[in-house]
Amino acid sequence: MKRLLTLSIVAAAALFAHAQQPPGAGSRLDAGFAEVDRLMTSYAAQAHAPGAAWGVIVDGRLAHTGVTGYRDVSAKAAVDADTVFRIASMTKSFTAMSILKLRDEGKLALDAEAERYVPEMKNLKYPTSDAPKITVRHLLSHSEGFPEDNPWGDRQLADTEEQLSAMLRAGIPFSNAPGLAYEYSNLGFAILGRIVSNVSGERYADYVARNILRPLGMTSTTLEPSEVAPNRRALGYRWEDERWKEEPQLSNGSFGSMGGMLTSLTDLSRYVGVFLSAWPPRDGAETAPVRRASLRVAARDAAALAVRLGDADAQRRRLNAGGYAYGLRVNQSCRFRHIVSHTGGLPGFGSIMLWLPDYGAGIVAFGNVTYTSWTRVTNDAMEALVDRAGLKPRQPTPSPALADARAAVSRLVEHWDDALADRIAAENLFLDRTKERRRAEIERLHASVGACRADARPFDGLENALRGFWTMECEKGKLRVAITLAPTMPPRVQLLEMRELKGTESPDDRCGA
Question: What is the pTM of this model?
Answer without folding.
Answer: 0.88
